[in-house]
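Late entry, evening session. Most of the bench is empty. Finally got around to the prediction I had been postponing all week. Sequence below, unchanged from the version circulated by S.P.
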Amino acid sequence: MGIALIVIALIVVLLIVFVIAAYNGMVRSRNKVDEAWSGIDVQLKRRHDLIPNLVESVKGYAAHERELFEDVTRARAQAQAASGVQDQAQAENQLTRSLSRLLAVAENYPDLKASQNFLALQEELTGTESRIAFARQFYNDTVQALNTLIQSFPSRIVAGLGHFEPREFFEIDEPARGPVSVQF
């Protein structure tokens, strides 16, 4: 009888240790996902801050492209106002398409392409696009780790008790993959 109580107590203690470890692991993973999202957010804000300068730079040379400037401005505003992973992804896809059109128009103006200000803005935008891609990859990796924890047995039981929900990946449309194309 004494050995049976010791075995039961040991099983209960091991179960409690497992639950605590699984819960803490999910909390760590959730915090990493939140941190990774903030990394994406920082880079997207950086991108959004570059756009008005880029638009103004092109505007000086191609003032008649008013509709394009309005599209870029509208897409930027939607991207800044987006909430949630899917909303943000859709808004960023639209912004990328608008920026691609803006840069394509810039190709028609040799003086603009030679402008040091425009070249610096293009270089900054390209660097920012690379940082966004890296941040997106890091975010998606941490989401995958969290989702695997949440969906795996037996940690799935703890996830249900702790109200952990799988997170969405930050995905972009196929045509918008990669950095904005910049040609000199």
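Two things to note before I forget:
The CA atoms of residues 41 and 111 lie 34 Å apart.
The mean pLDDT is 89.
Will write this up properly tomorrow.
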